[in-house]
Write a structure and sequence with these properties.
Layout: H1 12-19, H2 23-30, H3 43-53, E1 59-65, H4 73-76, E2 80-87, H5 90-99, E3 104-107, E4 119-124, H6 136-146, E5 147-156, H7 166-184, H8 198-207, E6 210-215, E7 218-223
Parallel strand pairs: 1-2, 1-4, 2-3, 4-5
Antiparallel strand pairs: 5-7, 6-7
Helix pairs in contact: 1-2, 6-8
């Protein structure tokens, strides 16, 4: 079957099998070809994040939350002495290890991160859609605990497309299709483009104990140097 996206990308059949799997199993299956799909974080977003972080720091240890195949590690590597990636897909971590052999990788659920004040900088790209709104507080609380006082969390948040654009209606259609799929098929595959609007994300980060600022496409959340937030 003709491969989608690029000659090295997944076929339609492979994507269908992935979509009918759990999130973890689906990404395990997709991992070897993930970087040849549009789902990989675009270099433009990585470059914009790197630019926003230039002049901030210094950063000793960096953490990529939901690191996938390790694309976001390219933002951390030039800025941190030590970098760690965490993801719950063993397949994605295997690809990330091959791409970033000097990094440390941990397999864990991002809703229960196993870190305590070990990092100065955390980043996350393209992961929010995999968390239901009720799960975001646990995600952000775990990042808060993982950061040292004064640590920074840079979270890529896509700009919503104009309501009259094709992209807007494509995301509406995708989210609707996923809701129907999850209503009739188990295990669920959680991926929604419209479940994490910027105001809600900022509110949840603030509730988790961060001070928050935004630049286009990016949220910068700082853990206060003397914060005693739980």
């Amino acid at each position: 079957m003709t491969a989608l996206f690029s000659p090295r990308g997944p076929s339609l059949r492979e994507l269908c099998v992935q979509a009918l799997s759990s999130v973890e199993r689906g990404y395990d299956l997709l991992a070897p070809k993930f970087d040849h799909t549009p789902f990989r974080t675009p270099d433009s977003i990585l470059d914009a994040t790197a630019e926003a972080l230039s002049g901030l720091g210094p950063f000793d240890a960096g953490l990529d939350v939901c690191c996938g195949t390790g694309a976001g590690m390219s933002v951390l590597a030039p800025r941190c002495e030590r970098i760690t990636g965490v993801d719950f897909s063993a397949g994605m971590l295997a690809q990330a290890r091959a791409a970033q052999p000097a990094a440390t990788f941990v397999r864990a659920d991002a809703r229960a991160l196993p870190f305590a004040e070990g990092f100065d900088l955390a980043v996350s790209f393209g992961a929010l859609g995999h968390f239901l709104p009720a799960e975001r507080p646990a995600l952000f609380a775990g990042v808060w605990r993982a950061l040292r006082p004064g640590g920074l969390f840079a979270l890529a948040v896509g700009e919503p497309p104009p309501v009259l654009s094709v992209s807007h209606w494509a995301t509406v259609g995708f989210d609707l299709a996923m809701r129907v799929r999850n209503a009739v098929w188990r295990p669920p595959f959680v991926m929604y483009y419209r479940a994490s609007p910027l105001p809600a994300v900022v509110a949840d980060l603030t509730a988790a104990g961060f001070t928050v600022s935004t630049v286009p496409g990016l949220v910068l959340a700082r853990k206060l140097a003397h914060s005693d937030h739980p």
